[in-house]
């Protein structure tokens, strides 16, 4: 049997530290204070929906909460900080704490890839987990990362457990888009919203984890990340910034387009044999370019805003369809750029 510690994890960003290994927590003091205040006033809800954009510290906060509860139970506190040498901290870092269950998309050993959803079989582990006797601390914690990955059967199975919470059991659900969850799941959780991080916090995190990043790359990554440290790290750590600059050079000439440069760009992104990561990354960057441009036009009172919003929506649908029905990636890219050219006229 494969060693679980060597399998890919859906909540890991490249070679950067996993949230379970991250003790520092910056920029989300208000969210942590909301939890510690509830704890100190004896209002520890059995289920918390930790929500907000991707890459802003939701999983890091979930592990901070789990470490504290498993070490100290519901003892009042004004900080979730813990020493790196604490036995609970070491056990969680080693994925060996018997009273912590983490649910996320499992790795399929047969297909050699992560599954696209969290299945009902995974959620059934929650009932088995909470039926066991807890350790010395008496508490058990389940982290679900992330709730949007639940398929319908899994979501309904989770709902049943949330409706009948176990004693001294704590659910921590992580959500990037809570509006897409079942209303009944949201209603049984206390919302714990996190907000985009201030730029200075994102700069601090990127410089700590990527000390060799250039000033130009750091500036562009921070600008594109919009308060997401995770996104800034991803942008700065692969060729996303190179790709964005190439794409921006093409788009800066709108409504003119250089046909040769456009075809060369499309060939590079949609080359045969590629697994589609470059194509999907281009779709994300194009969407972001459109968001930024639309906001700028809205602030300046420019005309034709509806036309750009329509192009934004059409671009997203074209990229989604390309993966769903195996369309020609190059043709999709060409069609998108022609739509942008038409909107710019």
Average pLDDT, rounded to a whole number, is: 90
- Give me the Rg, rounded: 22 Å
Kindly name the structural category.
alpha/beta
What is the CATH-assigned architecture of the largest domain? 3-Layer(aba) Sandwich
Q: Report the biggest beta sheet as strand number plus sense, adding barrel if it closes.
A: 5 strands, parallel
Query: Helical percent range?
Result: 40-55%
CATH class of the largest domain: Alpha Beta
Counted up, domains total 2
Written description of the protein model:
This protein has 345 residues and is an alpha/beta fold. It folds into 2 domains: 4-193, P-loop containing nucleotide triphosphate hydrolases (Rossmann fold, 3-Layer(aba) Sandwich), CATH 3.40.50; 238-344. Helix content is 52%, strand content 9%. It is built from 14 helices and 7 strands. Strands 2-5-6-1-7 form a 5-stranded parallel sheet, with helices on both faces. A two-stranded antiparallel ribbon has the order 3-4. Strand 5, helix 5 (152-163) and strand 6 (169-175) form a beta-alpha-beta unit. The radius of gyration is 22 Å and the shape is elongated. The protein starts with 28 loop residues before the first helix and ends with a helix. The mean pLDDT is 90.
